[in-house]
Design goal:
The structure holds 2 protein chains of 2 kinds. Chain A is an alpha/beta fold. Chain A has 11 helices and 10 strands. Chain A is globular and about 60 Å long. In chain A, about 55% of the residues are buried. The longest helix of chain B is centred in the first third of the chain and has 17 residues. The chains are: A alpha/beta, B alpha/beta. At the A-B interface, helix 3, helix 4, helix 5, strand 3 and helix 6 of A face helix 4, helix 5, strand 4, helix 6 and helix 7 of B.
């Protein structure tokens, strides 16, 4: 079924909120892409703000942006996807636990450490007593949230549901991940795919959407279908992508733009390149992880980007190598995460 | 729902047993599993009682013949394997998914890592953090079961597992999957013991759910999974089924990050919407497996909501957390298995250590194990931090 996008909000390492309708890419000369954050007091009561960690602020603010964009105050359900959860509060509580030898601990970071804190803070602030769910499954977290929205709206299409994907980098998480040797030493993040890749850029972000199963005149973009593939071999992946298109009655040439989740991780990028060149040899292919970095819910950034491209009928700089000179009706997001998690999200222009 | 979502198998491990049959024997003989901390060093050792699974990680991995990974994954593998085996299904024949729930994931190893990491950011064994994320425990279970279809993980604190059963039921109902292994797993960790201790809601004595003199909860650990199948699978495989998922609901209390509203508005909504979806009236419910943690706040709030909804038609009810301790993200899965057992064995389980009813609600729970009853519909409640409230009803198949 089609999920109509009623509103969006996005806090990312790019300028994705505020006045700019579509951004000029911002480059980074380090392995960590940090979100460009808004003045949160615009979106959140300063008294509440004081107690919130950064990931909660990012989630609540992007959620508020999406609700405002949709012209509603309270959604009829909140579904959050977060791979990492609330890392900062987890780290603070663990640190104090070790330092204080399990004595005299402040409970606040513990309370705010569970993954569902973000979705429940939104519910609390909005007094939303409806369906509330949090998915915490690596690079399927946002996809699970989107799938759940699809299940919900299949049952009750008239509802408007807030869904989002959010993840944060912390000092500790970055230091730990760095030790795995997975990060890129690139001098300019925007050049990630212009030379042989040798590692990912560490990313973060928070993108929220108001979705409904009921179409209105002003809707521009719908999510038509999605699927996930867990640790697939190449053959079943290729077949899975073909079946996915067939189920949506599309041929590969009907896809006007593919947003490909290459990350800079050499081994998985090679596989993705092989698959995309065999299935989509004549299609326009764009990349997005040079903009947002790699993180479990990067597909939420890609959904926002794909929807913006359809809304504006313009592809921002640095995403595709050559100009696309046709209407952008169907966009396929093909994301992958370290070769183990693959997902497809199909976007369609409503008019 | 379009068809029925059948429960074709169940598996459980907790402080009161490593299998469904061991667990049932403990419940029947009123043998609880809560005692002192033995599995790791902590300043709370000998002070705070907990519901440990009585095996070290090494023994669990020997028994399962898998590599020692996070305890959360080991417990999950143990219970999920039992659930699949008891269903008799060949998962490969069907579109099978695994939906698991956990709140701590691989925290049991991460907290070891952090100890060394804090002294020097180059210290700590990286192999202790690779399975930290919640989804990793699910994937270790999926890989063990050979499930390569849909996998997902839910973390809505202590209501997580019921939400996993809910998602699995919906996916089968809407034709996306044929078989779903759904439930949850959580290991005891210093992180959670200290977290709940900092909130001052851990009882230094054995917990007393729903008692007027209750003084907090005891933490536990374990895993519980059910195998859900569609009508088509049931018929094609000729499965003998005890019960099915009749209805479920998920609400948010939206009152406070940790405390429940005094009137239990979230839990009331979850129970009421579950009845609506099941097409049942309050008098149809034969037994409620309560969330019943033993904290002042939960039991008063839940009791008030039960009283408001069921009035003078209150069915037999009990919290089994006096047996197992509160197993957090696993509790909904473990208690789903208890609910299935109540229907299969036509029995109800006692609420141990109860003496005096909470004066504001006046509910006296089930005091002894009782069988030879007619148990057709069982409701199970799971509520969590963040106001997450979920309920589910299991119904007897020949009903």
């Amino acid at each position: 079924m089609a999920l109509y996008i009623k509103g969006m909000g996005n806090i990312s390492p790019q300028k994705t909120w505020g006045e700019e309708s579509l951004f000029k890419p911002v480059g980074y000369n380090e392995d960590r892409l940090k979100c460009i954050e808004p003045e949160y007091s615009q979106w959140i009561d300063p008294r509440q703000l004081r107690r919130m960690s950064r990931v909660i602020k990012m989630g609540v603010a992007a959620g508020s942006m999406a609700l405002k964009d949709a012209g509603i105050t309270v959604p009829q359900g909140i579904i959050t996807g977060t791979g990492y959860g609330c890392l900062d509060d987890t780290g603070i509580f663990l640190t104090k636990l070790v330092e204080n030898k399990e004595q005299a601990l402040n409970p606040t970071p513990f309370i705010q450490s569970t993954h569902n804190t973000i979705g429940s803070q939104i519910a609390l602030l909005l007094q939303c007593q409806d369906y509330n769910q949090t998915y915490a499954h690596d690079a399927f977290s946002f996809e699970s949230a989107l799938l759940d929205a699809m299940l919900q709206l299949n049952e009750t299409p008239e509802r408007k549901i807030l869904i989002g994907g959010v993840d944060e980098i912390t000092e500790a998480s970055h230091a730990i991940q760095k030790r795995f040797g997975i990060f890129n030493k690139s001098e300019n993040s925007l050049q990630l795919f212009n030379r042989p890749s040798e590692g990912i850029l560490n990313g973060e972000g928070s993108a929220f959407f108001v979705l409904s199963g009921e179409k209105s005149e002003t809707d521009k973009v719908s999510v038509e279908a999605l699927t996930t593939f867990y640790k697939p071999d190449e053959e079943s992946l290729v077949k899975g992508i073909q079946d996915f298109l067939k189920a949506s009655s599309l041929k590969s040439e009907d896809i006007d733009l593919i947003l490909l989740g290459k990350s800079g991780d050499q081994k998985s990028d090679e596989k993705v390149d092989r698959i995309s060149s065999s299935l989509f040899s004549s299609n326009a292919i764009g990349y997005f992880k040079q903009l947002c970095g790699e993180y479990p819910t990067a597909s939420a950034f890609a959904l926002w980007l794909g929807a913006r491209i359809i809304q504006e009928q313009t592809i921002p700089d640095g995403i595709v190598s050559k100009k696309v000179n046709k209407p952008l009706k169907n966009i396929l997001i093909y994301n992958q995460y370290f070769g183990t998690h693959h997902s497809l999200i199909l976007l369609h222009a409503c008019h | 729902m379009k068809g029925r979502i059948h429960v074709a198998g169940a598996g459980v491990i907790s402080a009161i047993g490593n299998s469904v049959s061991e667990t049932f024997e403990s419940l029947r003989h009123e043998r609880m599993g809560i005692g002192p901390i033995t599995l790791f060093d902590s300043v709370h050792k000998g002070v705070l009682p907990v519901g440990e699974v009585k095996h070290t990680n090494e023994r669990l991995s020997d028994h399962l013949k898998v590599k020692t990974v996070t305890r959360t994954a080991l417990l999950g593998i143990n219970a999920a394997r039992e659930a699949v085996k008891s269903s008799g299904l060949d998962l490969k024949r069907w579109r099978t998914g695994l939906i698991s729930a956990t709140t701590v994931g691989g925290m049991d190893l991460t907290e070891n890592f952090f100890h060394d990491f804090l002294s020097n950011s180059r210290h700590g064994k990286l192999r202790d953090v690779i399975h930290h994320a919640c989804g990793q425990s699910t994937e270790l279970i999926a890989d063990d079961l050979g499930i390569n279809g849909f996998v997902s993980t839910i973390n809505t604190a202590c209501s997580s597992s019921v939400n996993a059963i809910m998602l699995g039921s919906r996916m089968i109902d809407q034709g996306m999957l044929d078989v779903v292994v759904a439930g949850g797993t959580d290991a005891l960790t210093k992180f959670t013991i200290n977290g709940f201790n900092s909130l001052m809601i851990l009882d230094k004595n054995l917990c007393r759910p729903f008692d007027a003199n209750r003084n907090g909860l005891n933490l536990g650990e374990g895993a519980g999974f059910v195998v859900l199948v569609s009508d088509k699978v049931k018929q094609a495989e000729g499965l003998k089924i005890d019960c099915f998922v009749a209805g479920f609901a998920n609400t948010n209390d939206a009152f406070h990050q940790t405390a429940s509203s005094p009137e239990g508005r979230g839990s009331y909504g979850a129970m009421q919407q579950t009845l609506d979806m099941s097409g049942l009236k309050v008098e149809d419910i034969d037994y409620i497996n309560l969330h019943g943690t033993g904290t002042q706040n939960n039991d008063l709030s839940e009791g008030t909501a039960v009283k408001r909804l069921f009035g003078d038609k209150c069915p037999r009810l009990s919290s089994t957390k006096a047996f197992t301790g509160h197993t957090l993200g696993a509790s909904g899965g473990i208690e789903a298995v208890f609910s299935v057992l109540a229907i299969r064995e036509q029995c109800v389980f006692p609420n141990l250590r109860f003496e005096t009813a909470i004066p504001e609600v006046g509910i006296t729970p089930q005091l002894v194990f009782e069988n030879n009853l007619s148990v057709k519909h069982v409701m199970s409640n799971s509520f969590g931090f963040g106001g997450n409230c979920s309920s589910v009803v299991f119904s007897k198949s020949d009903f």
